[in-house]
Every structure is written in structure tokens, then in C-alpha cells.
């Protein structure tokens, strides 16, 4: 719970100045991916970072 809201996913990004433009593409694509409930469920089932990356990449293929 976060205040009165159920939170399932929290992400933190570390972006250097030179790669700020890439951030918008990555962020926009992640949001589109996570809006689709089956994709969000797959992401939530990830047990490790590498699993998360594989799920995210797999959703775009």
C-alpha cells in the first residue's frame, strides 16, 4: 500500500545527461507495455532482474 493505493510496480531510472533523449523512448514504451494487463502480470512474476529484462523484451517481440 502507498497511502490508500495498491502499488505493484515501482521503477527508478538513472539516466546520464548524454542519454536523456533515450529515456523518453524507454519510458514511453514501458508505460505502453504495462498498460496491457497480461504484460503487467508477466512483469510482476519476474523473480530477478534478468527475468524482468527477458519479459520486457519478449513483450515487444
What descriptors fit this protein?
single chain; globular; mainly alpha; 3 helices; 61 residues
Terminal CA distance reads 33 Å
Q: Could you tell me the number of beta strands?
A: 0
The averaged pLDDT comes out at: 92
Helix content: 55-70%
Domains counted in the coordinates: how many?
1
Q: What profile does the largest beta sheet have?
A: none
Q: Please, how many helices?
A: 3
Q: Give the overall shape.
A: globular
Helical/strand content category:
mainly alpha
- The radius of gyration is 13 Å
Order of helices and strands: HHH
Question: Any low-confidence stretches, pLDDT <50, length ≥5?
Answer: none
Strand content: under 5%
What does this structure look like?
The protein has 61 residues and is mainly alpha-helical. It has one domain (17-60). The protein is 59% helix and 0% strand. It is built from three helices and no strands. The chain has helices at 20-35, 37-44, 49-60. Helix 2 (37-44) packs antiparallel against helix 3. It is globular. The mean pLDDT is 92.
